[in-house]
Amino acid sequence: MVAASPPSPPPLGRVARASGPGLAASAVIAGRFLPVWLATGALFVVAAFVAPDALGSTSWSYVLPGATVLAVAALGQMLVVMHAGIDLSTPAVMSFGGNLIAGAGSSHGLFVAILFALGVGVLVGLVNGVLVGLLRLNPLIVTLAVGQIVLAWSSKYSRDVVTTQPQVPGGLSSWVTEKPLGISVVFWTGVAITIVVALVIRYTTVGRRFQAVGANPRAAWMGGLHVRTYLVLAYVAAGVLYAIAAVLLAGVSGSIDPAFGSAYLLAPIAAVVIAGASLGGGLASATSTWLAALALTLLTQMLVIMGLSTAMQYVVFGGAIIAGMVVSGDRVAAALGRGLRMAKPPRTEVAANGQGGPAS
Question: Rounded to an integer, what distance in angstroms lies between the CA atom of residue 297 and that of residue 253?
Answer without folding.
Answer: 15
